[in-house]
Amino acid sequence: MYDLAIIGAGPAGIACAKQALKKKLKVILLEKNQDFFGGTCLNFGCIPLKTLLNLSKKEKNWQKILEIKNEVVEKIKRPLLDYLTKLIDIRWGGVCFLDRNTLKVDKEIIKAKNIVIACGSLAKGVEKRSNTIIAEELLKRKDLPNKILIVGAGFIGLEFASLLNNLGKEVYLIEKEEQILPFFGERDLVKRLRIILEGKGMKIQTNKDLFVFNCEFMSAPKNGYFGEFGGRYVPEV
User: Fold this and answer.
1) pTM (2 decimals)?
2) Which residue segment(s) compose the domain that 13 sits in?
3) Domains: count for the chain
4) Which of 73, 104, 121 is the C-terminal boundary of a domain?
5) Alpha carbons 38 and 32: distance in angstroms, whole number
6) What is the CATH number of the domain that holds 189?
7) Is 226 within 8 Å of 152 (Cβ atoms)?
8) Cα torsion for 7, 231, 145, 73, to the nearest 10°?
9) CB 156 within 8 A of CB 188
10) Does 186 share its domain with 210?
11) Residue 234 domain-assigned?
12) Same domain, yes or no: 78 and 108
C-alpha cells in the first residue's frame, strides 16, 4: 500500500509529490494522458504560448515555430519526468475510485492510505461546433484559420490574439466586461493597450456576451472560434 496516491500530474500534483518525498512517503502519481504531464502551463499555457509569441515576431512559418516550441517544452518536461520516475511510481491511464483507499487505473488496482485529487479544471460549458477551437487544439493544428473570433479578452485571450495577429490573421475579440483585461486595475494602461491592439488591426468589442453577440460586428468567421472561458472544477475520476 502506498502512503500517498496523487491523481493528476500537473503543477499541483508534481509539487505535492515532491513535498511527500521530503517526508519519505511512498508515493504514486497517476495521470490520464502522458502528453499532459506537467499540466496546462507546461503544455498549452505559459511556456509554449510565450515561446510562440516571441518566435512569431520574426518567424511567420507556423510549422517551424511549432517545432521549436515543442523542443522547448520537451527540454523542460523530459528531465522532470526522468527525475520523478527514479523516485516514485507513475502510472498512465484513467482513474476511478473503488472505495476511499482503492483506485483502479486501467486494469491495475492501487491502494493508498491517502489520496490527493489534483485534476485541474475545464472551461465553462459552451456549445462545441465544428468550427470551435480551444487552446489545446490551436497549439496542435498544422494550419491556422485566417479569421478567428476570440471569446474573452483576459490575459490568455490577448496572448492568443497577439500571436495570431503577428502571423497575419484577422482577429476579433469580444469581452463581456467593460474593458479588456477586466481584472487589471490600471484602467488608463488598459485603455492605452486597447488603442495599441486596435492599431495593429484587431477588432475589439467589450460589454458583449457570446450568446447575445451582435452579428453585425463581424461576419461570422468560417475558419474557427477560440474561446477563453473561466474554469470550473471537473475531476475526471
Assistant:
1) 0.80
2) 2-121
3) 2
4) 121
5) 12
6) 3.50.50.60
7) no
8) -40
9) no
10) yes
11) no
12) yes
Tens of pLDDT along 91-127? 999 999 999 999 999 999 999 999 999 998 776 655 6
Written as nine digits, the cell of 116 is 490527493
Residues 113 and 161 in one domain: no
Residue by residue, pLDDT tens for the chain (237 residues) are 999 999 999 999 999 999 999 999 999 999 999 999 999 889 988 899 999 999 999 999 999 999 999 999 999 999 999 999 999 999 999 999 999 999 999 999 999 999 999 998 776 655 666 677 877 788 888 889 899 999 889 998 999 999 999 999 999 999 989 999 998 889 999 999 999 999 999 999 998 776 555 444 444 444 555 554 444 333 333
What would the grid cell of residue 18 be? 515532491
